[in-house]
Amino acid sequence: MRRPPFLLTAVLAAVLGLAGTAGLAGCSSTGGLRAEQAARSAASGGGGSGVSTPRWTFAMVTHAGSGDSFWDTVRKGAQQAAAKDNVNFVYSNDANTANQVQLVQAAIDQKVDGLLVTLAKGDAMKAVLAKAEAAGIPVITVNSGEEFSAKFGALAHVGQDEATAGRAAGAELKQRGRKSVLCVIHEQGNVGQEQRCNGAKAAFGGAWQVLYVNGTDLPDARAAIAAKLQADRSVDTVLTLSAPLANAALQSVADAGRAAGSTEEDTFDLSSQVVAGLESGSIGFAVDQQPYLQGYEGVDLLWLYKYNLNVLGGGSPVATGPQILTRKDAPALAGYVGRGTR
Questions:
Q1: Span of the secretion signal (predicted)?
Q2: Are residue 96 and residue 216 in the same domain, yes or no?
């Protein structure tokens, strides 16, 4: 059910009101000694920031997040940087684009000092970001919507170029000798996912099919992938575009009656399950865009702009990926994934 705008505004206002006393209490163990000490000190009421700048409030509004390990990692990076930078950090998310717009508007109405926004459905965010610019609120876009970022007045975009990431995946598939790939898009209309699939297809050069599934209903997605694998025995590889879908695809291979090892599963993004799959060999490779860096660098770039009028990127994105990870990387990754920073 769509939540009315006044309720979204009220919710964000309440969170903003609590940010000064509780906004950093959710910080936990992360990399970087100084930032880790700051987060612990802040959580215990000791302040603990690494700088003496004014206590600005930055709001991050994303198109996804609840119960998703990827977005938990983005958020953790942002919280870590906020603790270090003496920033009140406020996070909200909504998969419904109209509701995401309302959350951004609520942050503008609360006169936050900076905004971090994802642009999965970029055109829908144009008008509200124009309002942020008119209000003098600096904006950094993260993760999705690189092509819209500068046009909508953002200072910089932090993330990976999705077409570049797709080409990296396609080149890896080709090098691994795969013949026929099924690329699973789990959010129809998401520009970044289309770019991943198209980039991979172009670099791969072999047989290619695209399957659209509902990523918010993993049992249904699992069944759809299994049905496709049963119907087309020529497919030897499934490429998923998120870690939750990777696990569903692994189950789909068994559901389709295929022998273990007969169908390779590869994916974008990491989770503890993906790292375990890399280590066991059930997943061939993962394309990591380092979500922790997206949150961390997003907050840091806003802080640098407020403090020193610094801007990074020069009109190009501040790239956090792609990084191809395979079985040899799994042992080192396990600890970092376990603490929620990879």
A1: 1-24
A2: no
One domain for residues 43 and 183? no
User: Nearest CA to 47 among 37, 32, 57?
Assistant: 37
Q: How many structural domains does the chain have?
A: 2
Range in 77-86, 142-151, 289-298 the model is least confident about: 142-151
Find the distance separating the first CA and the last CA of the chain, reported in whole Å.
33
Neighbours of 315 (CB within 10 A): 9
Same structural domain, 151 and 189: no
What pLDDT is attached to residue 130? 97
pLDDT in tens, 323-335: 999 999 999 998 8
- Is residue 304 domain-shared with residue 267, that is, in the same domain? no
CATH of the domain at 20: 3.40.50.2300
Residue 333 CA neighbour count, 13 Å, CB half: 24
State the residue range of the domain holding 58.
5-160+291-311
Residues 277 and 187 in one domain: yes
How confident is the model over 287-295, as a mean pLDDT? 96
- E strands within 213-282? 237-240, 264-268
> For residue 323, with 0-12 CB atoms within 10 Å meaning exposed, 13-18 middle and 19 or more buried, which class applies?
middle
Nearest to 20 by CA among 71, 55, 52, 51: 55
* Percent of the chain whose predicted confidence (pLDDT) is above 70: 85
Is the pLDDT at 36 greater than 90, yes or no? no
Residue 191 sits in the same domain as residue 128: no
- Give the integer Cα–Cα distance in Å for 243 and 241: 7
